[in-house]
Amino acid sequence: MVSNPRNGSRHQDAYGFEPLPSYIELAMATAAAAAHDGPQQREKGFLFSRFSTVERMIVLAIAGLALYGVALLSDGFYIKGKAAVAQVLVQRALAGSALVETTPTISIQPQNTKPLSATQ
Fold first, then answer.
1. Which of 41, 55, 106, 120 could form a disulfide bond with 51, CB atoms 3.0-4.6 angstroms apart?
2. CB burial string 9-44: b at 16+ within 10 A, e below
3. φ and ψ of 57, to 5 deg
4. Are the CB atoms for 25 and 17 separated by under 8 Å?
5. Is 21 left (phi over 0), alpha (psi -120 to 50) or beta?
6. DSSP labels for 29-41?
7. Is 12:2 a contact under the CB 8 Å cutoff?
8. Which residues have C-beta within 8 Å of that of residue 13, sequence separation ≥ 6?
9. Whole-angstrom Cα distance, residue 23 to residue 71?
10. What average pLDDT does range 11-23 have in this prediction?
11. CA dist 26 → 9, 30, 37, 49 (Å)
């Protein structure tokens, strides 16, 4: 029988229902049901066989970006190391130039030149 709000039995029907289970209660029930299941056999084959095609593409894109980042980092470290080695070599070259005599001992003038206005 359908209760009529005029009869006053509206609240009597409401107490017959139980409250809905919460998320935690549902999760606990699912975990308890899964605990009694047998061990699942894993698929043999590709490493990401449990992923869908879109998930595999996302994983490959992330791996590609990670490899590209490692390549950029290694290139940056290579350039920094190369600059440090060049700095040491330049300092050694400049320190060694102090030992070399810088004043020439011979004349710089060419020996076999004739003036341009001379007649032959």
1. 55
2. eeeeeeeeeeeeeeeeeeeeeeeeeeeeeeeeeeee
3. -65, -40
4. no
5. beta
6. HHHHHHHTSPPPP
7. no
8. 3
9. 45
10. 69
11. 32, 6, 17, 29
One-letter amino acid for residue 89 of the chain: L
- What single-letter amino acid sits at 13? D
- The pair of structure tokens assigned to 37 is 């299941």
- Find tokens 């920094």 and name the residue: 80
* Model confidence pLDDT, tens digit, residues 73-107: 999 999 999 999 999 999 988 887 655 555 656 66
* Domain segments of the chain as ranges: 50-98
